[in-house]
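Box 4.2: Ligand-aware structure prediction
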Amino acid sequence: MKSFKLPKNFLLGTATAALQIEGGDRNNSWFRWAEQGHIQDGSHCITACDHWNRMEEDMALMQALNCRTYRLGLEWSRIEPEAGKFNSAAIAHYRDEISRLLATGIRPLVTLHHFSNPLWLEDRGAWLNPKAGDWFERYVAYTAEQLGDLVSDWITINEPNVYLTFGYIAGIWPPGKQNRMIDYFKGARNMILAHIRAYRTLHAVRERMGRSDTQVGVAYHLRIFEPKRGRWREKRSAALHERLFQEIFIHGMGEGILLPPAGIGAPLGRGRYQDFFGINYYSRDMVSARLNPLTLFGSLSVKEGAAVNDLGWEIYPEGLFRLCKKYYRRYRIPIYITENGTCDARDAFRTRYIYDHLAQVNRAIETGIDIQRYYHWTLMDNFEWAEGLSARFGLIEVDFATQQRTIRSSGQFYGEICKEGGVTDEMLQRYFSG
Ligand code: IFM
């Protein structure tokens, strides 16, 4: 293990999502899903980290970790509780939160959609409804008007591929549909086009405000798909997974090009619809040749003997380097690591995980790849969707019974990295020897 220093302007911080931390909102698809008893450990999202009432305390913790940026989510169902009716109190709350962040020198990156839908949208077929793009644009325009003087950096949609896979193929997220490949592609098309419209709206609204520094992107969930034994049929299967799970979204949202089966042509025009390339990176999958077009992911497994986290996901740091290299070569725009982290309740391997992944980021930067930011997933333990409150991804441990927050040892380590802008020899000695 070697010490390293990231570039001076490199920004380090943490990422969260509104539904996973805020608590208190009953007007969204995940509240209803939890009420119906679908959360695997029997927990619920209704309180989560109670961040809605504890944002000052949580901001103080971000400061304690020396974060220079913070990726936060907005809850659409709070801002637009009924179709076309906006809630000024919710916007005032977010304005307050963002103003406080700015006052403490933490740069916000704001996510507009992160898995959770207002109930009025869910009841109209969510993202399968051909009007979803109009509704999203209306919400984005309103939010940009209200917050655009404070926020320059935006993520329109988080991990559309994961949202559609779990909601329409695996059936373990709302709306709980299984093996609906056609719906997966219908949703993909609608989300792609909605992103492009949101991209244009965010730029247009801020330009009207006289702001030219707007940065808009997508947080793509990207994985490495590796042929299990290197056979050609496995390679073909891996390429197909990559295309259906990743490439259709990247080409669509980034360039306006619809790839079959999500569509054809460029209905809104070819262009560049991202100012940075956002990567959420977690793991790799080994792909066998067995292809089941209905389930799509039936042929994936974890590499034999690989180190895994609490959820059984392989820990594969080099994958982050490989993805940065591939997409920087293709697009030549700044890369933000919009999420990277691991589930480790005992905090047994998170420190090493952070070191290994940041070392890969540093390696990529040294080879000329323009990576500008890294957001650790996540600030504190929170509501991990189908897995509930028991899956622990936080730099900070949360006792959900008392809402007590305690910085983990890995959190201290990350806080020192944020302060130093890298890892020193002394830190290596202290955290890894013995
Ligand atoms: O918690 C999620 C997050 O909402 C989206 N990306 C992956 C994380 C860990 O599963």
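In the box above, the bound molecule is 5-hydroxymethyl-3,4-dihydroxypiperidine. The mean pLDDT is 97.
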